[in-house]
Amino acid sequence: MTEKNAELVRIAPKSIACPDNADGLGPSAAAPARRAGGVGRKVWGALGLATFGLGAVGAVLPVLPTTPFILLAAFCFARSSQRLDAWFHGTALYRVVFSGYMERRMMSVRAKLSLLVPVSVLMALGMYFTSGIPLLRAIIAVVWAAHIVYFGLWVKTDRAGA
Fold first, then answer.
1. Where are the beta strands (DSSP E) in 25-149?
2. What is the mean pLDDT of residues 27-44?
3. Which of 159, 70, 145, 62 is nearest to 108 (CA)?
């Protein structure tokens, strides 16, 4: 088996059967997920912390979106270390808002309200303070409506988790 093939076998998911198992590097020797090495893991970890911080700030300020930053943080933490990934999955922000969505693609009524009420209050404040700027008010109204439609109507509601 060539060195390139051995590397492919090493990083292949366990569910993929390897046609050449003569060297003992079959599916049982495959790594479950590929993580970057040394410096790469630290870079992924730093990016994950930075995007998580931006997502946390976005939960409070309407000028930053929360969800894309938190999803990017999940991507980065998954590639950094098991410790950071486990920490991220243990945060209150992840547990309350994203765990149900990530596991079942639905959110509880409480999780939806915990997103929509603060967003609505902050968007209303934005509308109030931008009364003299019609273009900005239109942008705020579109973003506000998109939040209501997406979380209120598109994302399925888990009534049992309410």
1. 106-108
2. 63
3. 159
